[in-house]
Design a protein that fits this description.
single chain; alpha/beta; Rossmann fold; Arc Repressor Mutant, subunit A; four-stranded antiparallel β-sheet; 17% strand
């Protein structure tokens, strides 16, 4: 099995006890782990081993987790989970803006961390393919997953007139998204989106004018059923990802072209031009 096909995880954590706990959780999920104790070594390990997933501590000697995340994001599409003992909202925002896919505060529950990891693995990586899934884990999850629970639930609109869907491309007011190729184009140019930003845009395009709440978006992005607890931090994370997506699109919340906020409810596509 090649490096790109195997389940390799890099752990970047300066606390030896937590580092070993993370290794145990990841190895139980079927990963081969590469353990590092600082940001520089972690960046080098990601570059060398091309991991499917990387866990990253925020407070480390040398370069901190935010800077480490930015350096990793410059060359890697690894799933990136940041862990920290600091639960302030500003830290969450910084982590997500640095390129993290998820943000977990310490102390964390190993089962929850593993659930978050396995949920992310069911979403495609950049390049179109989902990450390899451990067969034993997949069978166990399949036995407990509700029938019909998918990243876009039964109420999602698979083909919606407002989006102008045709073939593999989904289009709304000149913004085009290709699910199979994981590409987004605007005015003829490809946009560089993070995995989470792409997934959010895909959900909203497929939902058309249906409003999606922050709780619902968090659940859909995790590919989890509604019983999975969505915290206030998860909802704030959705706000940050949406703000980053809008910034890259050049969309303005007060006069949006593509994504509008329904105050007190959630988000949806804007209406098509009628003229």
């Amino acid at each position: 099995m090649s490096t790109t096909e195997s389940r390799i995880a890099v752990v970047i954590e300066d606390d030896a006890d937590i580092r070993q706990l993370l290794a145990t959780v990841l190895e139980q999920a079927g990963f081969e782990t590469i353990l590092t104790g600082n940001g520089i070594d972690g960046v080098n390990a990601v570059r060398e081993h091309n991991p499917v997933i990387t866990t990253l501590d925020v407070s480390m000697p040398g370069i901190d987790g935010f800077e480490t995340a930015k350096r990793i994001r410059a060359f890697s599409s690894t799933y990136l989970i940041m862990l920290t003992a600091r639960a302030e909202e500003i830290d969450t925002l910084q982590g997500l803006e640095a390129g993290a896919d998820d943000y977990v505060t310490k102390p964390f529950r190993p089962r929850e961390l593993r659930a978050r990891i396995e949920a992310m693995l069911r979403r495609p990586r950049a390049g179109g393919a989902a990450a390899p899934v451990n067969e034993g884990t997949a069978r166990a999850e399949a036995a407990t997953e509700p029938v019909g629970a998918t990243a876009l639930d039964a109420n999602a609109v698979p083909v919606h007139e407002e989006t102008g869907v045709g073939g593999d491309w989904h289009e709304h007011r000149g913004l085009r998204l290709n699910s199979a190729e994981r590409r987004v184009r605007l005015n003829g140019d490809d946009l560089e989106l993070t995995r989470t930003e792409f997934n959010l845009l895909e959900v909203l395009l497929l939902s058309g004018r249906r409003v999606r709440s922050k709780t619902e978006l968090a659940e859909l992005l995790r590919d989890e059923d509604a019983a999975f607890y969505v915290s206030d931090a998860d909802k704030r994370a959705i706000e940050v990802h949406l703000a980053n997506l809008r910034r890259k699109l050049g969309d303005h919340p007060t006069s949006p072209r593509w994504i509008e906020t329904v105050r007190g409810v959630g988000y949806r596509l804007t209406a098509n031009d009628t003229h």
